[in-house]
Amino acid sequence: MDVLIAMDAPNLLNEKAFIKHLKKEGLEYLKEEEGMVFSGKSSTPVMNTRAFILEVVKRALEKSPAKFCNMVCVIGENEMESYGFDLKTMEFKELK
């Protein structure tokens, strides 16, 4: 299934390292899109894919911190999900 991730992560400490980490994990940076947009493919169930995305982006933020990071994901035909990164707990939380 197709995966699309759009992020708002201003003032990344090292944007190249951030993008490189996501690329290494199989997510393609879509330069032609406005902002930070990544796409990929998944052959695992939605729950596993969601957990993978949250973990991979968390690790990228650990390598290259930002003032904040908000992200929306579309996994296959599922509705768009929104997440915000909590700098205190270093975890993503679903935004409703």
Task: Report what the structure shows.
The protein is α+β, with helices and mostly antiparallel strands and 96 residues long. Helices cover 29% and strands 33% of the residues. It is built from two helices and six strands; from the N terminus they run E-H-E-E-H-E-E-E. Helix 1 runs antiparallel to helix 2 (46-63). The longest helix has 18 residues, at 46-63. The chain is globular, with a radius of gyration of 12 Å. The chain starts with a strand and ends with a strand. The mean pLDDT is 93.
Any idea what the shape is?
globular
Element order: H for helix, E for strand = EHEEHEEE
Rg for CA atoms: 12 Å
**What integer is the average pLDDT?**
93
- Could you say which structural class the secondary elements and strand pairing correspond to? alpha+beta
- CATH fold-type name: Alpha-Beta Plaits
Give the helix proportion (percent range). 25-40%
Order of adjacent strands in the largest pleated sheet: 2-3-1-4-5-6
Number of domains: 1
Measured by DSSP, the beta-strand proportion falls in 25-35%
Low-confidence stretches: none
Distance between the termini: 24 Å
- Major β-sheet profile: 6 strands, antiparallel
Which CATH class?
A: Alpha Beta
Q: In the CATH classification, which architecture applies?
A: 2-Layer Sandwich
Instruction: Count every beta strand, where a strand is a DSSP E run of 2 or more residues.
Output: 6
**Helix segment count?**
2
